[in-house]
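New to this. Explain these tokens.
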Amino acid sequence: MLKLLLQGIRTRWVTLAGSFLALALGVGVIATTGLALAATFEGPEQSPERFAAAPVVVRGVDEVRVRTSAGVRTRKLTDPRPVPAAVAERLAGLGRTAVDRSFAVSGGEAVGHPWPVAAATPYRILTGRAPTAHGEVVVATGTGSAGDRITLTTPAGSGSWTVTGTVRPAPFEHAVFFTEADAARLSPDIDAVVVHADPARVRAAVGAGSGLAVLTGDDRRRADPDPDRDAEALVSVNALLGTAAGITAFVSVFVVASTFSFAVAQRRREFGLLRMAGATPGQVRRLVYAEAALVGVLASAAGCRLGLSGAPLLGRQLVQQGLAPAWFTIGDQNWPLHAAFWTGLAVALAGSVAAAHRAGRVRPAEALRDAAVDSGTMPPVRVLLGAAVLLAGAVLVVLGLVQDPAGLLKRKTYTTQPMLLIVGCALFAPVLVRPALRLLTWLPARLPGATGLLVRENASAGLRRTAAVAAPVLVTVALAASLTGTKATIDAAKAAEARGQVTADFVARAEHGDVSQEFVECARRVEGVRVSSSRATSVTVLEEGTALIRSDARAVDPADAAAVSALPVVAGRLAGLDDRSIVVNEEWETHRVGEHVRVWLGDGRAVTLRVAAVLAKGTGDNGVYLTPRNASGAGIDRVEIAVRGGADRQAVERGLRAAGRATGTEVLTRDAWAAAQAPGGGSTRTGLLMILAIALVYTGIALANTQVMATADRVRDFAVLRLAGATRAQVLRLAGAEALAVVAVGAALGGAVAALNLLGVRAALGRLSVPSEIVVPWETVGPAVAVSAALAVVFAVLPASLALRTRPVELAGARE
């Protein structure tokens, strides 16, 4: 058996090399993403940055903590309470203190602070001096020099300030320091107090239940501008790589199994000869398994080595793209390599099971006859498996549409659920490719010349070869169209939904930070307008006794909001909103008008509010509405202006834009605002493109391997064509045309699967009453098909060209 195994490897090295490369690349992809994913499970603790030199920091609690039967649940607050002035005075009696106030400067590009607090931060004077008089500031190096006059936009409006000194820039913020008096005038609320005193005395002075936190040691990072940025970045990278690992593993496992099964199926004639020579079915199966195990072990080991080299490159790309923290690196975890190795070996063995079982159970004469033309390519087990997978995919979609259409729009659902339909269609590929091929080649087969006819008949006769080439194209096109098409369709629906809910003629916003009260007052003085200012905040609710859920919320005056918006109210009235009530959406556990619900506001206060109105679920962006009194600490982030009937729109626009220039506020028309609000690419799109890039690379390698393996078995066919009078160029054109036809079949089947997935998403949006059209991502699908076609043609024509260098008579007499 060992001698026979080695002889088989020596004579079939092209076939085995193709399987080896495909499997090694698949294992390499799994190992690379697995190693990167493992690196997200733990990272260094984020140390205090801004208040690194402060012994004790007192500030508002930034999270709500609720004890449940399943343990303590926490959620971050959007509007922590300020430190009361009385508490700051008590703390001043314990020792030296410094009061911190933070406010947006120049549209949010910078953050303003009082200079006395700089002693507790990394900032130190580099040039000039500290600000001491009204109108003086200290800025970071590169913003200005001592003696310069600069224009800054503060909560009080735009004005000119004198630079008295500079400090070294910090990586976590762009700071501008004012005198303590100026800072108190611009931002009356106290955000934090630095205290030089014993922590126990500070806690006693603050008191229990005050809503304030006393931070020492590493806990001081809670007072940093973004204390959870590293943890949140790791969560995002984890989700991105988890999805990437799952989908790329699916693609690699499926394509490897298809390629390896085709490689084994090519040897039917050899198996027939072995059976004629007296080999038992068990011996044939063991031979195939032995070769598969050998290739699997070597390829999996090579793939793990590829993963070790590729993972650091992937980690650096994630950092360069801003998806991972700057310190993110690949660790020394071993379990991803074990998982990749054993997955590769299992795929190699699984890919040989069906062909080995089939080759071992037929009679010798049937085996030889079966090697001539592909037939019986769909065994009952494959039919049952494919039907079960397709049925499962269809049932999940139907159940989602009936029970929770909004759930079909979630990323985890639309990135994983299409896999079932893709797998089911791919399992039926040997059945589907023949009718698809005949349909696509119907016209070419009737054109003058024999090329179209030969393409159709050759591809139809070699169904295993056709299916093996079409399968990776099917998977890539279906993934590209389903994933990016679904995201684009949902993004378009969200944009249409937002545009339909805002009826204002103009929308004012600050690019960063809050819209100043000065602008709101100026806008209200413009003749012929109705103004509604709103604040972004949040509420947290405990559902089912264990789930602490935070929802985005907007604080509005209901009378003003009704004039500039058209919210999708399904029960109650927006006008019924007051300080003791709340507007929720249908996703809330408590969503009946008149019911009471206990919530934690953005500043951590626990209140019980009555449900005044209920909004439709929509795409998931229909949030909660409160009154400004229940949004303490939240600044105005959006102002909507409606032009009254009969008013001069151009005059209104001139007045609003003049107010915007004076206060550093951006004034947009409704259409411009809706376009700016439309969901962009973001990390989700970047992750999807990364996944598709990996899938496309892998598909290209799989196409190259399959085409080279297939051409090695077709040299006699090419020789017969040459002997029949075909020129070398005609044979090469035939090979290229057949490759294009098979890629077209794979693309058509993949497009059909994607169409089913997108129709499911469109149906879900329809159930949610969201206006939307299906968005076909041609910019993604087109290049994927073009690259697949180019690779298929090149690797069909190139080996055929090399084979045709031998005389046709010698090729015709060749034996496998």
